[in-house]
Amino acid sequence: MSLPSFDDVCRAQDRIAPWIHRTPVLTSETFDAMSCAQLFFKCENFQKAGAFKSRGAVNAVFGLSETEAKRGVATHSSGNHGMALARAAACRGIDCTVVMPETAPQPKIDAVRGYGGQIVFCEPRNAARQETLDAVIADSGANFVPPYDDARVIAGQGSCAKELLEDVPDLDIVIAPVGGGGLISGTALSARALSPATRVIAAEPANADDAKRSREAGERLVEDAPNTIADGLKASLGELTWQFVATEIDDILLADEAEIVEAMRLTWQRMKIIIEPSCAVPLAAILRHRDVFADKRVGVILTGGNVDLQRLPWA
């Protein structure tokens, strides 16, 4: 599949508009003072299904032909993409099957089922996800909608940064988390088209730093089962997203597990909004690398707010 263009992002924005929220941008004097920067938080934790993943999922599902749609859709996901795809499929009235690791958070499992999706569990390894999904598709004939390495998905995710850059002009930096790379790829697409001077920075858990190591090695590296609280960022880059990360991202900054938990806790406490661990990684990276962001206008994409309230990391 070829790489998506900014035109694809624009078409995706039009296609998904009836089915998603245009999420708000919030600010925080506390975090501005802590970072010595002006931070503008794009709140995808308020998105349909609780995460930015709804953008790519809706774009993919509503981009299917009538013949394709009759076969339904399937994917693998630790939670947010699966939830988003199940909801998108329900909106179109088609079947959805999600392969999920046995360690997926219970609220995300419940949400997939709540949207009408069928779940097939697998071992918590990237290889096991793909093997299980291959068997599901062979049996059902469903259309595979990848969680990140797909032009339709990348274009849909790119609408998030497009909105941010339209609502908050003249940003010096946009920062978003990187796992499989769909969001950061779409972010780069929109930033390069709308604000070429804006730097695009990816934030990554130090315990799942395959994107940073891939950049340093000059080739895509795959990690099968990284151990990080940021469960949405355990996936490795795909072939399409690696091309964006290799050429269109200005830097990748890391945050350790304690920093991620503290950034999540502070956001709950100071901004009074719910975010999940993966969502906290950009703020954690900003607070760790203040020198990079000092005196800058920074767009921060808050990716999701789907949290198991019975297993809060600071409890």
UniProtKB/TrEMBL annotation:
Keywords: Pyridoxal phosphate. Signal peptide: none annotated. Its cofactor is pyridoxal 5'-phosphate. Coiled coil: none annotated. Residues 18-304 form the Tryptophan synthase beta chain-like PALP domain. The keyword Metal-binding does not apply. Pfam families: PALP. This is Serine racemase. It comes from Salinisphaera dokdonensis CL-ES53.
